[in-house]
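Board notes (copied after class):
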Amino acid sequence: MKLELAKSCLADAEEASRKAGVILLTDEESPEAEYLLILCAADASEAVWQSARTVLVHRSPWLVLEPSIVHPVPDAALSGWMGENWLWLRRGIKQIIGKAGSNPAILPRLLKIPGVIPDLIEELTASGQDALAQQITLAIDKVAAESSKKREILMAPTYRCNLTCSYCYAKGFSEGYPPDMSLDDLAAVLDWAASHNVASIFLCGGEPTTYTYLPQLLQMARSRGIQIRITSNGVYSPSVRELIAPPAVAELVGHYDQERMISSPVSAQIFETNLHSAMAAGVLVMLRYTMTEQSSPVEWRALIDLALRLSIPQINFALAFKGSNGENSFFKCQDAVGFVGGRLEGLLTGFFNDATASGIRLHLSKPFPLCALQPESLRRIFSGGALRTACTVFRDGFSRNITVNPDSTTFPCSGIAVRGPKITEFSDLAEAGRHSAGLIGGLLDRPYAEQCTRCVLWYRGFCQGACLTEQFGRLREEQAKGLVPLPIEQSKG
């Protein structure tokens, strides 16, 4: 009855009636409802289409995500989690493809839903519209290429740190590296970056504010027109505080270490003072928080209160992930796969609810298994823009997270400890990215858990389970047992 009423409303000449028809389809579980929503891409009214887009995302919340590597979906996955929803969506796209020629507004509207794009391209190709599919692919590639030109590199000038966070993914990274990047290496790296139009360098580590030559680094970067961003635990001295100011530093990401902040009021005050000082100087300041299996409302509410005092509108957060060396404590996402209503869902929804009630936005920095949350929880958190479940190292030719070590050698990502050539040995950033493509692609091709082989969202690149560092750590363990070949030290070429 509701479906028939919705169809009648959608056929009405009045915009308000058609919008009402869209709303009627919100909880109508059928392939025809999915098709009707997609068909609204051809509606003359932008308002009707936007309503349909909202309902589509409500029904399949993962559509707001930009997929990574896309695999064909086997029949076995269609009966699994979200499989039926995806199948209905796919059928709807297939049905509407033929209408695109008579209404050119359809495709541009569908392209505004990131999760639809791979299916749209595949269905265009299957229907013999290869040229149009290629046109869309080239347009997307062009946007990615333009974006990659503006990408930064990460640099860990030291792996020393003034704290000992139990969940730190970089535990053990200092072995085999000098305590500090030398001034000669620093100059060479900065010269290379400037000559290849790298406009921004994100300092990581270790704790970059403990770097012996931090003042020189900031001055040298500024003289070369390179913007410096810093991620820091924020517990640094007044002498360092004076350095964290424009134009030397454009952004400071204050990593809130709850283990220290809760137990040490003095450290908490230093952290707040340093962040306030940077903000007063004109530095863009962000907060970063790592949730562990021991996290609780007491912990994150203190952080939310801090964000409110400092007028910081957003908190970037992630579950503690297993470092590639495997020496840190981490949230066991493997145990949460398919386990809705468990610890992971409780943490994420609790934090999201408290942050939302306080007017604070959340942004997830690392992936987690989507099947650990009930669809309604996903909808609420996705609606706030708080989730990302596909690793961004895959973007821009695998160049987004290239990290330079204290000896100027490289990691493909700040958390994947595979020592590659010195950054200065690459002809440009694109070559540096391509060098790691095989390793990163191989990690993305590995299902995180056995259940992933029956999940359509893994095959379509919407979910990869957890941070790729954990996948890499598992590969390294398998290699140590002689199960798989894996080059730990990478040579150029």
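Comment from the instructor: Residues 272 and 306 are 8 Å apart (CA to CA). The longest strand covers residues 284-291.
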